[in-house]
């Protein structure tokens, strides 16, 4: 099918498109991502619990830094912190696993108290947060992602298999951070 082949080629090449909301732009691009592994610490949660203020995510971040988790992860592949969303019960309204850790070259050696997750290969839309306090820009960007998802403007249909966030050198200052959010597509 020539049309399907052209579409897939289009999706596998880095795309740039602007998503607009309330006069703001949210820049996103689509990429073909190879499968990789992440080791870190994890909780099971849902968005309603996190939005209520009784969520587990802030406590997990606290534990991650207080316990020096990043330094204890073996076979790291780079210096970035990754957050992996996986094992979705349904969609953004259901439970999911939330892991904070690092990409690894080999996930065969998992320290006690940690888990390994596989980020599935496939097509992802990358949405970059604006710069600002990480505790503000990441949740706000997720809310905008959900708005665009509802409008069918993410560049494809969400797979709800694995999504991930990359906290690289742009997010070293928690008061002035920028984060890439990768949304897995079908």
Using brief descriptors, characterize the structure shown.
186 residues, alpha+beta, Multidrug-efflux Transporter 1 Regulator Bmrr, Chain A
Structural account:
A nine-stranded antiparallel β-sheet has the order 1-2-7-9-8-4-5-3-6. The longest helix has 17 residues, at 134-150. It has a single domain (17-184), classed as Alpha-Beta Barrel (Multidrug-efflux Transporter 1 Regulator Bmrr, Chain A). Residues 1-25 have low confidence and may be disordered. It has five helices and nine strands, in the order αβββαααββββαββ. The chain is an alpha+beta fold and 186 residues long. It is globular, with a radius of gyration of 16 Å.
Layout of helices and strands:
Layout: H1 2-12, E1 17-21, E2 24-33, E3 36-45, H2 47-51, H3 57-66, H4 69-72, E4 81-86, E5 96-104, E6 115-119, E7 122-128, H5 134-150, E8 162-167, E9 180-184
Antiparallel strand pairs: 1-2, 2-7, 3-5, 3-6, 4-5, 4-8, 7-9, 8-9
């Amino acid at each position: 099918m020539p049309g399907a082949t052209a579409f897939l080629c289009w999706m596998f090449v880095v795309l740039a498109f602007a998503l607009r909301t309330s006069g703001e732009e949210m820049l996103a691009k689509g990429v073909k991502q190879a499968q990789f592994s992440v080791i870190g610490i994890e909780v099971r949660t849902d968005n309603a619990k996190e939005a209520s203020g009784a969520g587990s995510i802030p406590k997990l971040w606290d534990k991650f830094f207080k316990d020096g988790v990043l330094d204890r992860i073996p076979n790291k592949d780079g210096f970035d912190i990754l957050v992996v969303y996986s094992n979705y019960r349904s969609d953004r309204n259901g439970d999911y696993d939330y892991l904070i850790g690092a990409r690894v070259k080999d996930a065969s050696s998992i320290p006690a108290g940690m888990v390994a997750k596989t980020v599935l290969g496939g097509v992802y839309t990358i949405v970059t947060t604006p710069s600002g306090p990480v505790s503000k820009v990441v949740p706000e960007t997720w809310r905008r992602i959900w708005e665009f998802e509802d409008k069918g403007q993410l560049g494809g249909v969400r797979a709800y298999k694995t999504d991930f966030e990359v906290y690289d050198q742009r997010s070293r200052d928690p008061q002035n951070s920028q984060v890439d959010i990768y949304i897995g597509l079908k």
